[in-house]
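Check out one such.
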Amino acid sequence: MVNINGFDFYEEPGICGTCPFLITGNTNVPGISCHSNRGLCIQWNEAHHTWANIPRRCKKLFKSAFAQYNDSGETLVITNKE
């Protein structure tokens, strides 16, 4: 498990809908999103479809986070440059 900005990741997300950063507003079944929903990625402040592939920058982020911080108990903090 890797903790990134306070969210627990047990495995690398394959699509945006499985990423804890994506907020869809689906209150019926938390954590499971309808394939047609759009949500807000709170990490990058962008709208994404739940079925969209993970962007390249996120893949790189998750790959390096899981390689360095997996099961270390540390929290990784990511900030955006503006």
In short: The chain is about 15% helix and 20% strand.
